[in-house]
Amino acid sequence: MSGAAQVTGLAPEKIETVLGLFKAAGHDEVSPPILQPADVFLDLTGEDIRRRLYLTSGTDGLDLCLRPDFTIPVCRHHLAQDAVKLPAAYCYNGPVFRQRPDGLGEIPQLGAESLGRTDTAEADADLLALSVKALEEFGLSDIVIRIGDETLFAAVLEGLDLPTVWRRRLRDLFGETDRLTAAITRMAGASSSDDDSRDVRLGFLSALEGADPEAAHAVVEDLLSIAGISAVGGRTPSEIADRFLEQAALASGARGHDKAAETLSAYLALKADGASAAGMLRDFSRDFGLGLDTPIAAFEQRLAALEAKGIDPARLTFAAEFGRRLDYYSGFVFEIHAVNPPVEGPLVGGGRYDKLVTLLGAEDDVPAIGFSMWLDRIAASVRS
Q: CA 133, CA 139: separation in Å to the nearest integer?
């Protein structure tokens, strides 16, 4: 019996059937090492995973972690091949490790990744359709499919009169609705907190405003050294200083952007089924004077590809605010949920990460998309 079957109670033959489905679609099975260099996950996954890593150190002093996801290890595996060929497709079956408040930190997953396909709409449709078929193999067809698109959000940001630092910060927060909403409120000039300590921090940030960047960076590093702070959440003093100085720039530009805040709030409120979403987006683009024709056309092309794969766009739920809380996602994202879930969280989560392979060392951008299946949640849904 496989480890996943033992942990979840799923029939091992069902897991093998789904793996066979992935392989039949052209995905080679791989098993990346459980122990991974920590720096890539600290840099590229986002705060949600960073704070839940199982960290250790090697004999050489390098920080290591138990793999918290498969996407980065699979991409590292791809780049380590003697002859890296594209397109390439992989699948996997094994545990990931994240600290959880409910105890068990070993999470069994199945998944698939597709690297290097330039027919992005068709690749998106193939991977989403493959995940739906995999759930059907487990006996789950009563599902909700949520879709989102960070490319659309980025295009809205580009159409607004905002400082670059604010565009970058808002895009970084996409997918974390509460924090993004608070940042937009702050950008419009409203205070997000009346805490006295915040006033002290803003006073210091204001003192740094307009300072020479290198000198300001040195001041912050010196203060961290005096306080005896060597690292926070895996970040070095230099990285903490960078983040602090970004906050200074944000504080200095957090005024006079009411119109941009209104536009962003209106965009993030958009929701529709897939069949109606493109028309809704075009109406929004026209009403707010934004040039969103190109990303909307790509959105429509993806829906057409999904329909060709047998997935009715009316079956999809689009929300403009929906993103996934991993920093490497860069475009189309999706989650699949049970209609009446016995446990919280998606059965499947995936999306496009077109910059990740380059950040890991590829010479050129590599378009890529993948998904992971949470077998513990799938097992709970099968039993319910």
A: 10
- Average predicted confidence (pLDDT) for the chain: 86
* Peptide bond between residue 87 and the one before it cis (omega within 30 degrees of 0): yes
Whether residue 36 is contained in a domain is answered as yes
In a domain, 351, yes or no: no
pLDDT of 256 strictly over 70: no
For residue 199, pLDDT beyond 50:
no
Q: Do both 48 and 111 map to the same domain?
A: yes
C-alpha span between 269 and 267 (Å, rounded): 5
Q: Say which amino acid occupies 284.
A: F
Task: Decide if pLDDT at 57 tops 60.
Answer: yes
Q: What is the SS3 assignment for 27? A: coil
* pLDDT at position 251: 56
The total domain count for the chain is: 3
Tell me the mean pLDDT in the region 316-332: 93
Domain that holds residue 226: 190-253
Mean pLDDT of the region 260-288:
97
- Asked whether 173 and 180 are in contact (CB, 8 A), the reply is yes
Same domain, 155 and 297: yes
Tell whether 101 is covered by a domain.
yes
Which runs of consecutive H residues, i.e. helices, occur in 55-173? Answer: 71-79, 120-137, 150-158, 164-173
